[in-house]
Design goal:
By secondary structure, this protein is an alpha/beta fold. The protein has a single domain, classed as Rossmann fold, CATH 3.40.50.1820. A 5-stranded mixed β-sheet has the order 1-2-4-3-5. The longest helix has 17 residues.
Length: about 160
């Protein structure tokens, strides 16, 4: 796609005490677009993850990369030992709460097609990308095993 891309850092609540920070890249349009959540590696919200968001935006997605270390003060590191400590400090339930808050935020964005929100992740983020649909049933699309194949294919 040849559309220009807008980039922004946004903030939104997660629970009662945490303010999430996230990087957003999106096409310059008011049309409804699918959205993708890009979950970071254990290093933190790096320029590499932001670049991935920009690449998704160039393909027409509203891409958001939430900083799962928001509740830890937004640290970044290039040291594997420190990255391991950060990852282990983040409680899994807190990470999933923050990702659910990201879904809620996306649903409030006028340019986002709320029925078309996906998730991908890298390293630590890959496990969160697999878990999010398990705890956010509105984001899960499982075919009905009793439905005929033609119905299932039309849904997907």
């Amino acid at each position: 796609m040849a559309e220009s891309i807008r980039e922004a850092t946004v903030q939104y609540p997660s629970g009662k005490v945490v303010t999430m920070r996230a990087f957003v890249a999106a096409p310059q349009t008011k049309d409804k677009r699918p959205a993708i959540i890009i979950v970071q590696e254990w290093w933190g919200l790096t320029d590499h993850i932001k670049d991935i968001a920009k690449r998704y935006a160039a393909e027409g997605y509203v891409a958001i990369a939430p900083d799962l270390y928001s509740r830890l003060g937004h640290p970044l590191t290039t040291d594997a030992g420190e990255a391991g400590k950060l990852m282990n400090t983040l409680k899994q339930e807190d990470g999933l709460t923050d990702l659910n808050a990201t879904v809620a935020y996306l649903k409030s964005v006028p340019e986002v097609d709320a029925a078309r929100i996906g998730v991908t992740g890298f390293c630590m983020g890959g496990s969160y990308a697999l878990m999010l649909p398990c705890v956010n049933p509105t984001q899960s699309r499982y075919p009905d095993p009793e439905a005929s194949l033609s119905v299932v294919v039309s849904v997907w």
